[in-house]
Structures are given as structure tokens and as C-alpha cells.
Amino acid sequence: MINAFLFDLDGVLVDTAGFHYQAWRRMANSLGFDFTHEFNETLKGVSRMDSLNRILDLGRVKLSEEQKLILAAQKNSWYLELVNQMTPADILPGVNAFLEQTKRAGIRTALGSVSKNAPLILERVGMTGLFDAVIDGTKITNSKPDPEVFLKGADELNVPAAQCIVFEDAVAGIEAAKRAGMFALGIGTPDVLTEADLVVPSLEHLTVAELLAAVDKAQG
Ligand code: BG6
Ligand code: MG
Ligand code: MG
């Protein structure tokens, strides 16, 4: 029995995953190196400082904590230049219809994002107030793949973990969902999201009824 949907934000509801990628590459390029799309998959769902540390390790760049904070702030301001141009048209295809079906089905909803910019993004795309609970980067101490963000979401909704479906585009997010004891729906491709319980390319061609039937079948 499923009673709650927990949605990741970046790359699931809006296409900000591409903005993070652009801004981090701009920072890496400014330090004289680059990184691939494959490496970028390992950054998705990971907090700002953890992402920075992974990128600096890749480029073998050693910096003081103070210098790291400056770089993280620079990346964030490049990222915000892109976010500030967002409008409701930047909600990914199928998301609005899927959320409407979710409400009609009486399923509770939470946002589960490690981004500190989540409230700003929700405002830019007109989604503030749409979720029964919002857990963002300001409310957690451990980034995905730690399950904290989803456990807090389920707790705020008062729904047991086993009754939750997590919607995730990140490898780290799928791991977080599984560690939380939840059904993990991957948004993307099965070759990347290998640990997901089910993978769909986007929410565009999925209905709530189809998803619940698939979960029922998977759980036997
Ligand atoms: C996650 C993204 O949602 O938020 C990561 O998938 C990002 O790429 C993380 O690093 C932290 O975001 P922010 O907006 O706080 O820098
Ligand atoms: Mg994501
Ligand atoms: Mg996220």
C-alpha cells in the first residue's frame, strides 16, 4: 500500500541538473581541467561542498577550506544566473499532470532535495505550497546517499517508509531511497540507475495508476 510520493527536485521536476553541470564545468575549466558527463552522474544528488571536493580530487587541486568556500560561492552565483531565468515553463514535461493525478488519488507528497536553493527554484517555477512537506538542503545534515532527506520527508508526512515511493534521477538518490527502505523509481536510464526498483525515462508517459500497479506487481 503506497500513501506518499517523495520527489527529488533537480532533474526530476525541473531541469536544473543541467544547470549544475554547466556551473561546475565552468568552475573546473577556470581551474584548467574539465570533466565528463559520466563523472557528472556521480555528482547528482550530492551536496554543494561534497560535489566541490569530488571535482577538486578529480583535477588533483588542493585548496584550503577558505578557498573552497570562495569557489563554492562562485559556482553558486553562476548557477543562480541560470536559475533566475527560470519560469513555470521550465517544469519538466508530464510533471504537472502527474502531480494533479497524485492529489486526486489522495497520495501525500513531499519534496526531498539536498539543494539549499530548492525554495527559490520552487518559487521561480510557481510550485511553492504544492507539497505537503518540503525537505531541502537547509533542513538536513547529511547529503544523499544518506537516507536522511527521505526519512525526514516521510516523518513529516507521518507515513511509514514502506508506504513511500521516491522519484529520483541520481545514483546517490536511488541509494538514499533504498537505505530509507522505500520503493525507488528511477527517472532516467536503467544502465545508469542500476539499483532502482523501476526506471522510466520521464514522468511524461507515466500515470499514477500505472505506477501503483507496477509497484504492486514488484512487491508481489
Ligand atoms: C542536488 C543536486 O539536488 O542539490 C546536486 O542534484 C547539488 O547537483 C545539490 O549539488 C546541492 O545543491 P545547491 O543548490 O545547494 O548547491
Ligand atoms: Mg536530482
Ligand atoms: Mg536533488
UniProtKB/TrEMBL annotation:
Keywords: Carbohydrate metabolism, Isomerase, Magnesium, Metal-binding, Phosphoprotein. Mg(2+) binds at residues 8, 10, 168-169. Its EC number is 5.4.2.6. GO terms for biological process: carbohydrate metabolic process. It is an enzyme of class 5 (isomerase). One of its GO terms (molecular function) is beta-phosphoglucomutase activity. Belongs to the HAD-like hydrolase superfamily. CbbY/CbbZ/Gph/YieH family. This is Beta-phosphoglucomutase. It comes from Fibrella aestuarina BUZ 2. The lineage of its organism: Bacteria, Pseudomonadati, Bacteroidota, Cytophagia, Cytophagales.
